[in-house]
Design goal:
Length: about 625
């Protein structure tokens, strides 16, 4: 808890931060909710606020509203309300009533009132007196008033039983425990239960009666999370209390805040001392035990208007059950006087446990320099401190005085600081006025500068917009030009493709025409050869004298003779149609030979048609001519 932000803010007294953090807490209570923050010493946020901010009721109320238990005790047995009472030099009881008790009563929250009583907090410490009852409890429902009175009465009886158990002065009765109801197993003023007291003071008889009457208190834990069995483990050897509690169902596996079980303390009893536990219990119970008869006596005396002193004494004597209470009553007897007329009888105020009543005894003025010095610097503080000590009658007056003076000094420093802060605030207000005027001037100047900057920005924006438009137009022009060039390239490519396709078509057309021409020529050649063959006789002419003479006459001028008498079927080199066709592929030589051409005919070079086909690479023609032809 000590490292949490809200704990640090409380320690610094930062009200605004604390309230802001508390207001931010959701109703669902997360794991780090204020009510769940507990320090290593058992102190809660209410302890811290009661110590550092006791005068701030708003913060204290906000802590209670957010689930912080004001009655939770630290490891010393002190609750947050105990710390608040000790921290307030004046009006501590009123502050506790304002923060804790009065909201419960005004809301009529009787269950919460029961829970507060069961924590051991003595409700009569902050309940209003009869003089204040009508004023302070005007808005409290009648049922809440009756419940408060009932709980105060039961707590008084519980405290009386606790004292009987601790002192062993008289045995307790089961009827008395039954009358207490739930308070019989709840905590008393020191944070322990009646069963804890019976074990601590080794009152075996009280242990038996408590276990027989309120058996559910056997495992109730104190503020150190110890059950009665933890303390029974520390009893001297030979004590039967430990076994009695075990037989009644006490759990020996429960861990206290130090992580020890009853078995651990039985094995190592030197870990804690029963004497220390008893001393702390006595310290916490002493003021509450003394306050009980004093307050009841005061109330009885205030209610005894019109009665004699003897009647009042008789009623007071019937009120108390122990000799100690009767002794306390005897202290009050000299202060009671008979009523005279309508005047109301009052006890001596310094013995009445009403923190709201103050009376300063007359003090003679100092006559020496030292006396005046002490009176000036210490008189008021010491007078108030001693008056409160006489009224409260604490267990340790020296410690109480030291704490009171420390608190007084802190309050005085706080008042001085507040005054200085007020002066500083005035100066700050003046400075703020000046700063405000200066700020207004600066704001005007800044406004003008902003307007100028705005105009400049608008001009720049306009220029940028114009530039942007021009850039977009230029970009559009570039893109249009690129698109035009792209279209031209596509058109050019298309034309080239068409030209190439046209050239290919023309070439193909020429090739086809050439093939057709060659085919026609071949067909014409075949036709001519066929016609020539049909026009001539197939047999060779016979040699006659006339023929020989004609042959001699037909010799050329160079003396050479023609190879074949059928000169008309040969060309100048002596080749027939068969020779010419032998150089062309796919020719039908069978038809030519049927027309009278001979494969044995030779040209002037002495080559046959087969030789010409062989020289031109016409293998099919060579093979066709090589087959003998039979007529």
């Amino acid at each position: 808890m000590e490292d949490s932000a809200i704990a640090k803010a409380i320690e610094l007294g930062d009200e605004a931060t604390v309230l802001e953090m508390l207001n931010a807490v959701e109703a669902a209570e997360p794991p780090d909710a204020p009510g769940r923050l507990v320090g290593t010493d058992g102190k809660t946020l209410f302890h811290a606020a009661a110590q550092h901010m006791p005068g701030n009721a708003e913060v204290l109320k906000a802590l209670v509203a957010k689930g912080v238990d004001p009655a939770a005790r630290d490891h010393q047995g002190e609750s947050g309300m105990d710390v608040l009472l000790a921290s307030c030099s004046e009006g501590g009881a009123e502050r506790v009533a304002e923060v804790v008790l009065r909201p419960m009563l005004e809301q009529g929250d009787l269950d919460q009132l029961d829970r507060l009583a069961m924590t051991g907090w003595m409700l009569d410490q902050c309940s209003p007196s009869d003089e204040q009852l009508e004023e302070k409890m005007a808005s409290v429902p009648e049922a809440a008033k009756m419940k408060l009175a009932e709980l105060i009465d039961l707590q008084g009886k519980q405290a009386a039983l606790s004292q009987c158990i601790r002192e062993g002065s008289r045995p307790i009765q089961a009827e008395q425990l039954q009358e207490l109801g739930a308070l019989a197993s709840s905590h008393t003023g020191d944070g322990l239960t009646l069963l804890h007291h019976a074990v601590l003071y080794e009152n075996a008889e009280a242990v038996d009666i408590l276990l027989a009457t309120v058996a559910d208190s056997v495992n109730v834990l104190d503020f150190m999370k110890r059950s009665a069995l933890h303390y029974a483990a520390l009893c001297p050897p030979g004590s039967e209390i430990y076994q009695t509690l075990k037989n009644a169902g006490a759990d020996d596996s429960l861990l206290d805040v130090l992580g020890n079980t009853p078995l651990d303390y039985a094995a190592e009893p030197e870990k804690i001392s029963l004497d220390d536990i008893r001393a702390r219990s006595e310290r916490l119970m002493e003021v509450k035990d003394k306050a009980l008869p004093t307050m009841e006596a005061a109330n009885l005396i205030e209610k005894g208007e019109g009665q004699t002193a003897e009647e009042t004494e008789e009623k007071q004597a019937d009120t108390f059950e122990t000799p100690q209470q009767e002794q306390e009553l005897q202290k009050l007897q000299p202060t009671v006087v008979e009523a005279k007329g309508p005047e109301k009888i009052k006890p001596v105020e310094m013995y009445v446990s009403q923190r709201n009543i103050r009376r300063e005894p007359p003090v003679p003025p100092p006559s020496t320099v030292d006396g005046r010095y002490i009176a000036q610097h210490l008189g008021e503080a010491l007078t108030k401190a001693l008056a409160e000590i006489a009224e409260v009658r604490p267990w340790d007056p020296i410690e109480y005085l030291a704490r009171w003076l420390h608190k007084y000094r802190r309050d005085e420093a706080f008042s001085r600081k507040s005054k200085e802060e007020a002066e500083e605030e005035e100066e700050e207000e003046e400075e703020e006025e000046e700063d405000k005027e200066e700020n207004e001037r600066e704001e005007e100047e800044e406004k003008e500068e902003v307007e100028e900057e705005k105009e400049e920005e608008e001009e720049v924006d306009e220029m940028m917009m114009t530039t942007k438009i021009r850039q977009e137009e230029l970009l559009k022009t570039i893109r249009d030009e690129e698109a035009r060039l792209m279209r031209e390239q596509e058109l050019k490519f298309k034309r080239m493709e068409e030209l190439r396709r046209y050239q290919e078509e023309e070439a193909e057309k020429k090739r086809i025409e050439e093939e057709e021409r060659k085919k026609r020529e071949q067909e014409e050649l075949l036709r001519s050869a066929k016609e020539s063959a049909l026009a001539q006789k197939p047999a060779l002419p016979t040699v006659s004298e006339e023929g020989e003479e004609g042959a001699h006459e037909d010799e050329d001028d160079d003396g050479e003779e023609d190879d074949d008498p059928t000169v008309k079927d040969r060309d100048k080199v002596g080749q027939t149609e068969l020779h010419k066709l032998a150089a062309q592929p796919g020719m039908d030589f069978t038809a030519l030979m049927q027309l009278g051409y001979s494969i044995a005919d030779r040209d002037l070079n002495g080559k046959t048609a087969r030789d010409i086909a062989h020289n031109t690479g016409q293998k099919e023609t060579v093979e066709a001519i090589g087959i003998p032809y039979i007529v």
